[in-house]
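**User:**
If convenient, please work through this fold.
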Amino acid sequence: MESHSRLVSFSRANHNGSPPDDPDHRLLRQRHRIGPSADHHVLVTARAPSKIPSSLTTLTNVTALQLDVTDPESVAAAVRAVEQHGAGLNMWINNAGAGYTMPLLDVDLAQAQQVYETNVWGPLRLTRP
């Protein structure tokens, strides 16, 4: 059976180590049937791949990649890694996102720009040819 790749941006791993009962972790294991019997390969990404749970990274059909959606060089490296894998992508799930709620006159412009960079330009970088 042909192997397919799925690129999953596992951004919450950077925040808290993402325990096995974390919703993102459950999504990866249940929705994508990650495990030895799966017929596809999953590329899990994070700004800090070392924080992706070992319960995922030790599976034979999972590859952890570094990806910071705000860094064009990081995006290019992730794209090259996908191309080197050879199977292409049939699905991309983006969970990279940031939030910032503040009264407009109190907004820190640098922080607001970083949120926009992550939430708007980051996904655009990953979806452009």
Notes: DSSP finds five helices and four strands in the chain.
